[in-house]
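Worked Example 4.2. Read the sequence first, then its structure tokens.
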Amino acid sequence: MDEYIRRLKEGSLKLYALERELPPEEAVRVRRVFIEGETGTALPAVGSFSIGIDRVVKRNIENMIGTVQVPLGVAGPLLVKGEYAARSCYLPLATTEGALIASVNRGCSLITRAGGADVRIMRDGMTRAPVFAARDVAHAREVVTWVEEHTEDIREAAESTTKHGELLDVVTSVAGTSVFVRLEFDTKDAMGMNMVTIASQKVGEAIERETGAVLVALSGNMCTDKKPAAINMVRGRGKTVVAGVRLDDAMIADLLKTDAETLAEVNYRKNLVGSARAASFGFNAHAANVVAAVFIACGQDAAHVVEGSSAITTVDRVDGGVYVSVTLPSLPVGTVGGGTGIDTQRECLEMLGVAGGGDPPGTHAKAFAEIVAAGVLAGELSLLGALAAQHLARAHQDHGRG
């Protein structure tokens, strides 16, 4: 230990190189001790963890010193009536926000009492959009024409890099001499960013070779990845999922302590008019809360909460009650790859019955997306009810003290 610390201090050994000389767990321990000395901070809690790290240090993180533990709770049972998830489940939620799980749990109770949430996946495709530099506007038009006339060549190039991915669509956009080619893939049970990035590199090289346009960047931000974007709201990215439930007047009064008219007005003035006035991409109450908590619990890329929370919540008046729905146009999720293989996150996926690859491929990721959408619906119902009944401040006072 002392020898490695000495070498780190003098600079003859780099932090990232410890795993080359030591087993992963020992490398993490040495690195943590070095950081404790450099910062004057004891890290005993960070250094206490249960996950196996051999895979983690190779695939999920660099310069690992330990873990940060997030409290994990469950909401449910939640009855989901999807095409891929048709069952009752307990939803794992990792969060530090008091009142969140209590709120989602109330929404789950309401959905289950109402007979379950209808959930359907409307579209499924992960995107990557390389950007090319053309010589002039005329050349840009030529590049677009070549792409439009050679979709089969593009498909062959893309699918030569993967056993699982399938090219679904190719859409071009031009801004001056910049040409964007938005490639959309079916990535089965993987969220798929690595898969589509590798495939897009192959496609980009082919377009560059055949058209003379210069491949400037493999991602030209028309994908759009981890940033608010109207293109994701309109065309979708990952899973486009819609969940809805019919509530009668008695349920609304009993569990939400309000009425259908008030619930609809709160949604209209807050989620629709308020969001429009703010020019928000999120026409919802707090979809990000549920998406983030499920993503952290289940090993998803947490930065994709940006896309996942761009949801639209609607409340339609129907005879004897309301029909409440939530639309998530861009929900990038997967059940293989990324953080899904970490021990604790895999256990959460196993709770939902969606860990690993599905049979046939893609069914586990679709089922997971349906469950997430139903969970978001539960969260929306509960918060709308709390606002309609003027209970929000009291709930935070009761559950969110700290």
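Now turn to a second chain, presented in exactly the same format:
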Amino acid sequence: MDALTDPGQNTSRKQQLAADLRMSASRIAERAGGGLALIFVAAPENGSPENTTRLRAAAGFPVAETARDAAQALMATVREVITSGTEQQLGALPSLEERSKGGMLIVPMNLDDRCHGALAVGAPDSMQDDLREFIEQEASKLGLLLDHSRIRDELESVQKELAGLRDGEGSVDNSHEVLELSEALFAQDIELLRNNEKLGKIEKLKNDFIEKMSRELRTPLNSIIESIISVLTGENETLSDNSKVSLRAALDDGTEFLRTLQNILDLWKIKQRELPVEIQEVNFREVVDEAIFSVQDRISEKPVTVEQRFSEPFPKIRTDLAKVNQILFLLLENAVKFTARGQITITASLEDDQLKCEVKDTGIGICPDDQPHIFDEFFQVDELSSRTYAGAGLGLALVRDLVVLMDGDVAVKSDAGRGTAVTFQLPVQIVG
């Protein structure tokens, strides 16, 4: 079967396009100084000639619902931009004023005479010329990317039609159309490669630096940790109590630092699309048990209990074991850290090929002003919390990126002084 008419290949292309849009939104929001980015696409829906504008990707929002609310608030202006083909400047979004207090810039994603949608970007500070130029360049690249997808779809449609034709004259006409579309697709392939090559040179420099720092830090850190373990196990009886306490504290600090370093690397790999999703059969109950065991030492130091609630029946699933394990560990670690007493509840259910899991605690909670930022990398609520609760502020950021990588959603609900509930939802395959 021709690759262009293979349903599996078509699904893979759509998934890759969705991933490309998500990564573009993330890169743009980061470049905007920790702002917001929304990508709207205008395309015919259900065979209708009328264009339907909808949100396809967003970054910089605490939860998906907030992004959808922002998209709804911007939709009228976005449609005006798409219709006119000219950009517009707006003020801050009321619901996310701090992230967009520098204003919102909405730019059409044009290519030649066609507008494929609009890119809306908010920044915490006023937008300088270099940022505006960057946003306009990204909008042009997105227009090219979407037009490339459109031509592929048209080519696939014509090829299917051509395969079913028996009339020789009709076949000739359609063959010319296939040739024209193929030539256009080839020209866009070249342009996309050029864009990727420019971006690749910059990313390679960053990647080389991260890899070098990883090697330079992890190698001696592993040696230090191994040496401490060796002393504690080999000379335990000859060590004084104070020495044991000091060595165990050093071991805990070293292990925590190594974990933070690994989290940084995982975040980097996700941004570079170098962290593949590996699907396998998973017993989710065992994953939960393993995650609880990993934080058991910290739980035992406090009057905190952990409860599991599973909706029955709960069969095995197919998903990425390592990533689900990492997500649960990070959420449990976070819950234990901020819960001095009380209970942590893990609730899980399976419905319509979706795994829904909630980790709820009775800890200190998060005040409303801080909730929009909790998925930011290195974010700590305040200096007092940074000193009281050790950590680099990477846990929830990595949870978000891992969930998004697996085409899922994550949301947080919290009341200051009463606790926090983090819910993630992932598409899975139910076994049996």
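Notes for the reader: The chain is about 55% helix and 20% strand. Residues 1-7, 45-49, 166-172, 382-392 have pLDDT under 50 and may be disordered.
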